[in-house]
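Person: Show me a sequence?

Helper:
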Amino acid sequence: CCAGLRNLLQGLTFSAKYYSKHNPPQTMCLYSKIKPKKCHILDRSESTCTHRTAPPGSILPCRFFSCKEGTKVPSKRKQNTSLVTSDLLHKNLLKSEQENWNDISPTYKDMTKRIRGKLEKLHMYTLNSGSPRMRYGENVYFEEDGCIFLSKADDGEENADVLFSTEDLGFSDAFIQRIRISPDQRYMAISLKSENSEEATCIIVKLGNFPVVERVIPSVFSFEWAANDVLYYTTQKNLKCQNVFMTTFTCQKHTKLVYTEQDARFFVDIYCTKDRHFLTINSNSKTTSEVWLVDCRHPFESPALVQARTTGVIYHIEHRKDQLYILTTYGEPAEYKAILTDNYIHRINLDTYCRSYRNSKLMKAPVASSGKENWQLVYALEKKTKLVDFEMFSDDCIMFLKKAGHLYLNVISFVSYSVQSIKLPTWACEFELESHPEHTSSTCYFQLSSPVHPPKRFAYSFKENNLIEQAVQEVPIITNCHTTRLLAKSKDETLVPITVFHNKNSKELHRRPLLVHVYGAYGIDLNMSFKEEKLMLIEEGWILAYCHVRGGGEQGLSWHRDGCQHNKLKGLHDLRACITMLHELGLSQPKYTALAAASAGGVLAGALCNTDPELIRAMVLQAPFVDVLNTMMKTHLPLTIEEQEEWGNPLEDKKCMKYIKSYCPYQNIKPQHYPSVFITAYENDERIPLTGILQYVQKLRKAALDHASTSEKGNWIPNIILDVQANGSHCDSSWEHSLNE
């Protein structure tokens, strides 16, 4: 029985293409008792995704099908000569780079050993910092090391029961991405994801004295329980989510398609309101939203439209006491940016679900008349204030805000009609809400962190109206780390924020090495979550700088608009201004400066490498997007169509083609002095074509050698190194894999 399920799951490889009707899931007992260690991961639920834009989605008539059906037979295609030649070129380039890496990597053996030891030691602080729990009544659920535990609120965790284990199912390389417990706690839905795939597999476990696997659903992105035995879920294919299904677990089990999105620019996911009255089907592009409601009391009825999509209007729905609460850009000023992230829409490095807004409004409308003509203002943010996330409770609403680089917590009381604002610690750069399944909870838990501060847990008590810092083990170096916020003047006089970290005990900062970080795309904030390697660098005397350039989301929708499409060069000007100012202030100097970027951040980093190579000595890129023009010319790639809103459409607009060509890293390589470059790429990356990175490295290396051969003797030749990882996917790796990198 166990072997049958294990074989099925392994055959899936987290992808529908291996799913076979000849090997149905078997029932498997998962019950055991062990003493769990400290938990460090829980409910990586709201994953990242993104969106697309136009004709409305449609509600489809009921259509029943079996989860066991639908095995695809690959079609036989004739490969023409050009495809064969291209494939051969790719293999030759890959082989050449792998041989080059094998020759170079032993050089760093001793350094690698030293750094690895330090990082493993620092990683323990993250493990010991505690982790959130999901509480349903007297039951507490938590996850650790691929196991899901259940304990009683009044019992110690040493008596916790193991409800599920990835290792028992033969998935030691998989991680639990999302957990959803049914309202009556009879079922648990779990998504498992491998490092080597973008797609996840949903496993339904029937709970009880002896938990058993009830069903396995491949290629699932998001899922929510609409009722005790009714699950809604979205499927993912080629990085797109456009279909919503409903499946039941009653005596008459069946599955049906309830919604499909016709516009390729839109991405669909589902969300359950905090009070569990409604399940929302959210269809989003980068600029427009449309939401459908499923009444959880009548989960078999057709979804109802809240407000038809209107170009430029983004909105998100919550519910409280027969009123829909709507966070939206509707009306003036319209400064709200919705981002759904888990690396599922854009070329990004994000692990959590977040919503970013600026100058947005909280409005409300009756459920029965939800059109925007009935929306009434509840609360509007101050100017230049960005709403990063919010959470609805029975009598209060929590808002996490960012203003002038500082974080705030605003508590809106629906009882006293008051607003309390609390400034959070100045060192904090990121916050993450913990899961609060019960909307009647009297306490809101969240974690604060920074690149050099491990997550620290806080709680806000609605009864006491105060903020409580949870006791955690301190990391000694934190007390020696100084945080500074600066503003650099860009080419057009725009002030660009920079966050700087350095050791207070460091002297002669102009001689210290500097690591500059940049992203600047998709309206997404530069990732400033805790990383062990950042803390290690501070300990060793490095300066860390985070440049919040245009194109990112640090200052809202207008900040993103000023750095995308025909404004992309503004982000490059911002980056140049930031690095120049840091040097002018005596924070390091060019020969001690390195630039780091990941994914779409590679566009600005690679562009600066071409235009101002004298500003930096080294550049480190992870899964970088460096061939914008050729990628955006290939509409058959999964993300090209929806990303036209970010980069433009060079196929139909000659001006756009010329503009992209003016900054595209690959297109602007030329014989000149270049910094050293280290790139990590992934063979299985579905977002960034490996061929583009291989060609970029070859062209860059040739340009550097050509320059050296025509210059005076003794000219410095940069190291240009590419490490192609056979495992791992786009900016999404396990701790062990990340440690190796």
Observations:
- The chain has twelve helices and 40 strands.
